[in-house]
Amino acid sequence: MKPSFATVHLIHRMNRAAPIALLACILGAGLLISRQGSVDQGQASARARSMRVNMESMPFLAGNWVGTDCPLPAGAAEILMPTAVLSRRFVELGTGRRATLGIIHCGDVRDMHGHYPPSCYPASGWHAREGGHDAIDLVLDGESFRASLYRFESTESTGTRREVSVLGFFVLPDGPITSDMASLRSRAAKLEIARMGVGQIQVVMDGWPTTESAASIAREILALIPVDCVRALKGLPTMASEADAALGRGKNGHVLLRGVSQAGHGEELSGEER
Question: Is CB count within 10 Å lower at the N or C end of the chain?
């Protein structure tokens, strides 16, 4: 049975309209994706700003510890593409003990996969000390967790032997504080979770102190990290943002609750409170 003229005419009209409809669907989907991406990007940018601001509030002076900023190795910065970084070298007056605090945040969990001590130190020419891996129980922002302690050694071209101990762990948004790489790999399996990012904190100590001594140094150094910095890494509202909300303030004239200021002069106020 042959189709009627009206049916054939309708089919031709639909065929002519199909490319237009398809283009409209593609454009509409692209607009939706673009909008979704812009929202995600805006949220990611806001988190990054919060982390950078709170890292800047890290004190240079606390107790007997005196800190100076030191840059990340250029290669590490290129590989990690960090959204926020703090690298600070501390010396304890009276004892001469030295430790470097590193806080780094990547916007995508997958960028952090190769950047943890058992991977990046051997890649840089360090050798793991046999039996040098240990675990230390710590508390950060009220959360108990277990951090990994690694010990490495290297011999420079001059024949000088160097030893270093590295304590490290990850701070996961909407997740635990952990040193388990399996936790990162599981989060990287889902794109929407991977793009929430991850923070890593390391305390690098000269030499091979005993586990007890390394734990003592790590606790003293980690105690310098402002609570808002940890909360920002976790993706939680900071104390400053909660204070703004309670006071009904916007970005202008908000109170900065940052603990010890960079100059070590206590709490810093801005806007209307100055």
Answer: N
pTM value > 0.85: no
* 193/266 Cα distance (integer angstroms): 37
SS3 assignment, position 80:
helix
Measured CA to CA, the distance from residue 248 to residue 42 in angstroms comes to 22
CB 232 within 8 A of CB 54: yes
In a domain, 222, yes or no: yes
Token representation of residue 9: 């005419």
Q: Could you read off the pLDDT of 24-51 as tens digits, one per residue?
A: 332 333 333 333 443 366 766 777 777 7
Task: With respect to residue 231, please indicate whether it lies within any of the assigned structural domains.
Answer: yes
Q: 161: domain range?
A: 40-246
Torsion of the alpha carbons at 101, 102, 103 and 104, rounded to the nearest 10: 180
Identify whether the C-beta of residue 224 lies closer than 8 Å to the C-beta of residue 261: no
Q: Output the six-digit token pair for 193.
A: 């979770």
In 107-258, DSSP assigns E strands to: 127-128, 134-140, 143-155, 161-171, 177-178, 198-206
Give the count of beta carbons closer than 10 Å to the beta carbon of residue 256. 20
Rounded distance between C-alpha atoms, residue 149 and residue 210, angstroms = 11
SS3 at position 173: coil
Hey, what are 217's tokens? 């140094």
Indicate whether 11 belongs to any domain: no
* 235-249 mean pLDDT: 58
3-state secondary structure of 60: coil
Task: State the total domains in the chain.
Answer: 1
